[in-house]
Write a structure and sequence with these properties.
Elements lengths: L1 E4 L4 H4 L2 E2 L1 E10 L4 E10 L1 E2 L3 H4 L6 E2 L1 E2 L2 H8 L4 H4 L8 E4 L6
Antiparallel strand pairs: 1-8, 2-7, 3-4, 5-6
């Protein structure tokens, strides 16, 4: 199942998923060598109506407003941006609709 914005104009500006990426170099035991891995984390919030239908616990925070993008990039507290998109702003797509 895929999710897309209902309003096509949203694609003009590009949705911003709030995520963190960090690269770590860790020892691999018992082989005694180092491995490099990328670790990702997503900021989540309560799901809106569309996401709740398929995942009742959480959805990723999606920033759609330039002021929110600026706040995120300037280290605003995550709790200020941790809110779902309004109900009705996303549509569920099945595999057939992706082609």
């Amino acid at each position: 199942m895929w999710i897309t914005p209902v309003t096509p104009a949203a694609h003009r500006f590009g949705e911003r998923f709030t995520w963190l990426n960090s690269q770590w170099k860790l020892p691999a035991y018992p082989a005694h060598f180092w491995v490099e891995i990328n670790i990702y984390a997503f900021l989540t919030c309560e799901p809106n109506a569309e996401v709740r239908a398929i995942h009742p616990k959480a959805m990723p925070v999606i920033l759609t407003q330039p002021d929110d993008w600026t706040a995120w990039l300037n280290w605003a507290p995550a709790s200020e941006l941790q809110r779902p998109l309004p109900d009705g702003s996303l549509a569920l797509l099945d595999e057939a609709q992706l082609t």
